[in-house]
Amino acid sequence: MSSPAAKTTPAAQSQQELFEIADRVLPRSGLGSYSLADEIRLIYSHGEGSRMWDVDGDEYIDYVGGAGALILGHSHPAVVAAAQAQYARGAHMFGSLNDVAVRLAARLVDDIPCAEMIAYATTGSEATGYAMRLARAFTGRDKILKFEGAYHGNHDYAIVSTFPKATGDYPQGAADSSGQPAATVSTMLVCPYNDLATLRRIVAEHHADIAAIIAEPVQRIIPAEAEFLHGIRALCDEYGMLFILDEVVTGFRLAYGGAQQWYDVKPDLSTHGKVVGGGGPLSCVAGRADVIGLSDPKRKGEPGYTYFNGTLHGNPVAAAATLAMLDELGKPGIYDRLNGFADELCRESQKVLDRHAIPAIAEHTGSLWQILFMEKTPRNQADIIASDQAAMRRLDTLLMQRGQYVLPGVRRFVSTVHTEQDLADTLRGLDDACRAFR
Ligand SMILES: Cc1ncc(COP(=O)(O)O)c(C=O)c1O
Question: What is the pLDDT of residues 337-350, one digit of tens each?
Fold first, then answer.
């Protein structure tokens, strides 16, 4: 242990000084699994609306949006006011409900199409983990079927065939990390996305063991084909499996009613985070009362009782921020504007790419968008693997160097506060980046 005098608490202010500290005290000099190349790595200082600044004062148009949590942009006044007011009333209470969490739960049950009940968790990963556990408890079966390339969070059941370099030996999944128990990986079955024929074949063979099918309605940047989601629903009905729709990204984003509204599909359970959370530590599982009700603590000791618990479940600061966000998102015309901006951004970006003869497409579903080095909308992970990912990351790196905060190779977001000025600046930056790319 170091003496107080030798502590590394940063009095330093410059990015370089902070990186020197970070390189020593953080294992990856960053957060999560993103490790940006030296020439583009930055330490974020603050954000306002659609813009963010690093500690050296460099300004960026933010298209990461807190990984999609900040649908209203940074520091939205209504959200800030709600969170501050609640923090002053009490930052957290554990073991008993709080009034804000009850109000939010009622709102979510009203507003999430499949929700008869919700159960709180803290992160999107926790929500998908609980949904899988509930499905196992409800059906008495162990296996979960997921789609190749889908991201459902960081736990051992989720990171199976999420980042494959080659397509798999379906339905066998591949571990994405050291440290994952083989027994966990083998409880996951994997199928290519948007491929109903293969799904039917796997389900016909393994349905007696499958508790649920979990799917992202937009898998990273790949939109589900409507008949695919409806096909999953039908198969689940036919074989007594549960359909878990992972709406951590798409909930309250594609539309107010999320992908369930966008695709007109009703899962048994849906998982929510990001917008649900208001940028804070809160997420939930929504859906059928007979399934979520298995976590009722009064059922402890009964068959089917399913354990849920977490220090921050139902956190009132995050709940207050979420309620403020939902109020804003409920205003007329918000989604037309949000999705319309992404549409214009992609159409205009495509013109720039074409003018420079860059073999890439600017794709979006709702406010999720990305520039991909391929010819047409991808259908599954095989299309992503076949695309020129090195070129995609090179262009994204050039965009970052021109003041656009995008994580190279990662799907990005538009928020409700992106402006015409942002659009003009983005297109100018893209034009310049394309010139440098060539
Ligand atoms: C579809 C989906 N599910 C689950 C998660 C996990 O959420 P969290 O990072 O809050 O654990 C994410 C995170 O990006 C996600 O995109």
Answer: 999 999 999 999 99
